[in-house]
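Lab notebook, bench 4. Still working through the backlog of constructs that have no structural model yet. Next entry is a single chain of 84 residues. Request: give me the structure tokens for it.
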Amino acid sequence: MEITTILGLMAGSLTTISFVPQVIKTWKFKETKDISLLMYIIFFLGVFLWFSYGIIINNFPIIIANGVSLVLVFIVLMLKIRYG
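Model written out:
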């Protein structure tokens, strides 16, 4: 595996994992008043575009990191809409 791929996977893993505590806290406490709906919508769209870009250029680290991030951000968005 090339060093650039390893670097991309490490960077993607860390930025993706950073959303896990927010998902857990939001799920556990069902409290979303301090979460910006607009920020998460914009972020979701940005991550979706990165994911699409990764597919177009066939870049594994971009696809994996942003695919997982899409799921995590989507969960927070759904919890925000539900518990608003």
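Notes after review: The mean pLDDT is 94. Residues 37-84 form a domain with the Monooxygenase fold (CATH 1.20.1280.290). Flag for follow-up if needed.
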